[in-house]
Amino acid sequence: MKYFLTVVFCGLMFSAFSQKMNMNDTAKHHHMMMTDTAKKKKMPGMDMGEKSMGGMEMMMSSSQSKNLPMERNGSGTSWLPDASPMYGIMFHHKEWMYMLHGNIAFRYTNQDFANKGSRGGHKVDAPNWFMGMAQRPVGKNGLISFNLMMSLDPLTEHGPGYPLLFQTGESWNGVPLVDRQHPHDLFAELAATYTYAFSKKTDLSFYLGYPGEPALGPVAFMHRPSALANPDAPLSHHWSDATHITFGVATVGFRYDQFKIEGSLFTGREPDENRYNFDKPRFDSWSTRLDYNPSENWALQVSHGFIKSPEALMPAEDVHRTTASATYSLPFGNSKTFNATAVWGMNKTAGHAADNSILLEGDIRIKKLDAYTRFEFVQKTTEELNLNPLAYGDDTIFPVNAITLGLNYDLLKVGPLNLAAGGQLTYYGVTKKLTSLYGSGPMGGEVFLRLYPRL
């Protein structure tokens, strides 16, 4: 019952707030005026008419540049394609522009529902996140933006989080979390960005977050259009985008046309088991990332970082992480979009062989129907799976494959939100060395109601 009330409460809160701010027309039509880099052309699948609220034009741009469209905003300072669908609620007050995002899935999940092994589990829960952004111009060439991201995971997931076969990372009660996805912190981002435009093609930006996200990896999974409909975190999360909640990060970025180079100093330690507090900022790690958007449909990135002591249970272990990704977005009609992402990630620790991950995910939306898939290949180690090294080897790498197929269908509208019903199945390919624990070909399944902003 408490999960159902959480869903209803969040929906009513979104709806009431949107009506209070008179933004129904904005949510329906997404009326915005893009800046010169967008060349004042119509973005595919979007209404770019000149109608505006209260006689004022909507002038929201990317938080990283006055000369880029807001559709390019990813998580932290990362980039999405300009053609990405925008699931959000916009409104303005005087010189300030605002946007709200969110996603909550009230569900029942069962990992290894055929009971082939001993490491599965089931749960009624509601993974979720909520985000707000505010921005305003500063002088002729400046722009300041503020991001707030929160999650009610500490209430809906609590403790060790939700069951997810082969997932690893972080801990609970001093024990490594294995076959569980940890809850996210109540505060996932409190960040400010200032950017200065030297010309239409060049910007210098400064980003500060406590917490925030450094320039390392692709857009975090919950903000990728190709992953929005899937309530589960990727198994490769800690190979690519696990630094999306970092307690202390400072990033400097320079953009020239469709290229951007960034450098970050940040805290390497992942969030502790107290999901309500603010962890100690350390600024003991670094990263750099190169972004390139060759067209409005593509966003490419490569990045590398040194992460100091990410796991509290292994304080002497540092990680060098390297990632590369490509994201593609294609609107092909009214409320019709195709989105796909490919990610490679590699972790390297001293004295151990590097282990890799590959993720491929896609999502196609046609009106009310949303179909999605995700394939992952991840190399998990004896240590990560919390196995006895005497039985499984001290430095053994176990290949894991997982493929997910899922559907969402919009049932009704709740103010500016959609309420969708959905479900998914995941098949896990298991090496013979692990069948005594997981069985042969375990499967996970879930059904859910999902509440999220409309296009």
Topology (elements, then pairings):
Elements: H1 2-20, H2 24-29, E1 61-62, E2 65-69, E3 89-93, E4 96-111, E5 121-125, E6 128-138, E7 142-150, H3 153-156, E8 162-172, E9 175-181, E10 187-197, E11 202-209, H4 237-240, E12 249-256, E13 259-266, E14 285-292, E15 298-307, E16 319-333, E17 336-348, E18 355-366, E19 369-381, H5 389-392, E20 397-414, E21 417-430, H6 435-438, E22 443-453
Antiparallel strand pairs: 1-2, 3-4, 4-5, 4-6, 4-22, 6-7, 7-10, 8-9, 10-11, 11-12, 12-13, 13-14, 14-15, 15-16, 16-17, 17-18, 18-19, 19-20, 20-21, 21-22
Could you please describe the fold and organization of this structure?
The protein has 455 residues and is mainly beta. 9% of the residues lie in helices and 48% in strands. The protein contains six helices and 22 strands. The protein has a 16-stranded antiparallel beta barrel. The longest helix has 19 residues, at 2-20. The two termini are 29 Å apart. Mean pLDDT is 89; it is low at 1-57.
Assign a percent range to the helix content: under 10%
- Written as H for each helix and E for each strand, in order along the chain, the element string is HHEEEEEEEHEEEEHEEEEEEEEHEEHE
Side by side, the strands of the main sheet go 4-6-7-10-11-12-13-14-15-16-17-18-19-20-21-22
The coarse silhouette is: globular
* Main sheet attributes: strand count, strand direction, barrel closure: 16 strands, antiparallel, barrel
In DSSP terms (H or I, runs of 4 or more residues), the helix count works out at 6
